[in-house]
């Protein structure tokens, strides 16, 4: 008995549970990935450094900056769609719930 | 031509919506103007006051500003201008409030924290120092100075391909290890040279694979020249091997950490 029973007699439960779990996991990973702006910001800093060091010229910089800005906007759009906090845009001082 | 049209459209939108872009917080008990240098095409930069604190702002439509070079430079330029006369607490890029009242509310509710930090930052400025190396040059230098590396290299060049595989592996590992040691040594050397003339320092994550140091130093204005000379001295010392990227003075971005309780305003 033991593990062998499970494998032999319940060949369905294992894989199905596994698939469900991994789909949930994959979705989470994908959501995290499409709403993470850190890699784009990192690339932007690298791009700036390359310009500063003279590795790329102004035209190249502008071209790649445009791409990165488009990606940043995409990340922002996904964040909004998934109800996550976004940076940028109008803000105000958070109201203290105790005072309301 | 096109530029001025853009500006017109933006300022019209701004006057309708009354949004305020905030650059920094200063201590000033009277109204100030800093010229038409604001973000979004030369908006008028002025202050919104609360008691002896003031936020340096310009009119803006309610938009999200992309961190393009043009926008970031505009943000920086204003802070640099203000810094010539004031100690500043910089706001992070892209902070937009819906109205002047919301800005006053920020000053009112965070008054104590802003005051404390302004006291601490009084007459202090930040300098950035990025140090990059040329791996090839450092490796060439290592090969000259490290006996074991030189010996292995000689061995590899004398032998046939089959017997050199492990020697190559070993050489690669040796060089990696030696490089890491060198990097650590350079970085601590530079830190040691500059720490005595700085109030505080902070190391950030290096950008790209050539950078070995990405540091920020908080320096007393009175020490600025000494710090400056020390940086130049140190960079001369490593002229052959390292590239120093020295920038500033900046507002103390890396040394002010006020967590504002802000929420989305729409």
What can you see in these coordinates?
In chain A, 68% of the residues lie in helices and 4% in strands. Chain A is mainly alpha-helical. Chain A has one domain. In chain A, α3 (38-52) runs antiparallel to α4. The model of chain A has no long low-confidence stretch (mean pLDDT 76). Chain B is 46% helix and 27% strand. Chain B has helices spanning 2-17, 69-83, 100-109, 111-121, 135-145, 147-158, 161-194, 224-237; strands spanning 19-27, 33-38, 43-50, 53-60, 89-90, 96-97, 124-133, 200-203, 211-220, 242-250, 262-264. In chain B, α6 packs antiparallel against α7 (161-194). Chain A binds chain B through residues 41-42, 44-46, 48-50, 52-53, 61, 65, 69, 72-73, 76, 85-95, and chain B through 19, 62-69, 94-98, 102, 105-106, 109-110, 130, 132, 207-208, 211, 243, 245, 260-266.
Features:
heterodimer, A: 100 residues, mainly alpha, 4 helices, 4% strand, extended, B: 266 residues, alpha+beta, Alpha-Beta Plaits, 2 domains, 6-stranded antiparallel β-sheet, 4-stranded antiparallel β-sheet, 8 helices, disordered N terminus
Average pLDDT level of chain A: 76
Secondary structural class of chain B: alpha+beta
Number of domains of chain A: 1
Q: Which of globular, elongated, flat, extended, rod-shaped describes the shape of chain B?
A: elongated
Q: What's the quaternary structure here?
A: heterodimer
Largest sheet of chain A: none
SSE arrangement:
The complex is a heterodimer of chains A (100) and B (266).
Chain A: H1 3-9, H2 13-34, H3 38-52, H4 58-81, E1 90-93
Helix pairs in contact in A: 3-4
Chain B: H1 2-17, E1 19-27, E2 33-38, E3 43-50, E4 53-60, H2 69-83, E5 89-90, E6 96-97, H3 100-109, H4 111-121, E7 124-133, H5 135-145, H6 147-158, H7 161-194, E8 200-203, E9 211-220, H8 224-237, E10 242-250, E11 262-264
Antiparallel strand pairs in B: 1-4, 1-5, 1-6, 2-3, 3-4, 7-9, 7-10, 8-9
Helix pairs in contact in B: 5-6, 6-7
């Amino acid at each position: 008995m033991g593990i062998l029973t499970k494998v032999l007699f319940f060949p369905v439960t294992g894989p199905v549970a596994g698939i469900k779990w991994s789909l949930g996991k994959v979705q989470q990973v994908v959501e995290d990935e499409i709403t993470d702006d850190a890699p784009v910001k990192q690339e932007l800093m690298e791009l700036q450094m390359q310009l500063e060091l003279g590795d790329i010229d102004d035209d190249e910089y502008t071209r790649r900056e445009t791409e990165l800005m488009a990606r940043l906007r995409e990340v922002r759009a996904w964040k909004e769609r998934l109800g996550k906090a976004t940076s940028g845009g109008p803000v105000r001082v958070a109201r203290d719930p105790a005072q309301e | 031509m096109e530029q001025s049209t853009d500006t017109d459209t933006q300022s019209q939108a701004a006057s309708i919506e009354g949004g305020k872009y905030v650059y920094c917080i200063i201590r000033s008990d009277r109204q100030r103007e800093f010229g038409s240098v604001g973000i979004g095409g030369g908006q008028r930069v002025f202050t919104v006051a609360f008691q002896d604190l003031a936020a340096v702002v310009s009119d803006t439509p309610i938009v999200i500003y992309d961190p393009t070079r043009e926008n970031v430079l505009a943000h920086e330029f204003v802070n640099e201008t203000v810094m010539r006369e004031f100690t500043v607490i910089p706001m992070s890029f892209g902070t937009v409030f819906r109205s002047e009242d919301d800005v006053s509310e920020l000053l009112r509710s965070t008054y104590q924290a802003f005051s404390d930090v302004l006291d601490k930052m009084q007459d202090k400025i930040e300098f950035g120092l990025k140090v990059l190396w040329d791996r090839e040059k450092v490796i060439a230098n290592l090969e000259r100075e490290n006996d074991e590396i030189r010996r292995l290299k000689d061995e590899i060049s004398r032998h046939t391909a089959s017997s050199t595989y492990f020697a190559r592996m070993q050489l690669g590992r040796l060089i990696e290890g030696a490089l890491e040691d060198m990097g650590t040594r350079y970085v601590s050397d530079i830190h040691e040279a500059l720490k005595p003339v700085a109030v505080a320092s902070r190391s950030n994550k290096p950008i790209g694979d050539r950078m070995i140091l990405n540091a920020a130093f908080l320096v007393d204005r009175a020490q600025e020249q000494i710090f400056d000379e020390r940086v130049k001295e140190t960079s001369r010392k490593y002229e052959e091997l390292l590239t120093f990227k020295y920038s500033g003075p900046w507002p103390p971005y890396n040394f002010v950490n006020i967590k504002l309780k802000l929420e989305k305003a729409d």
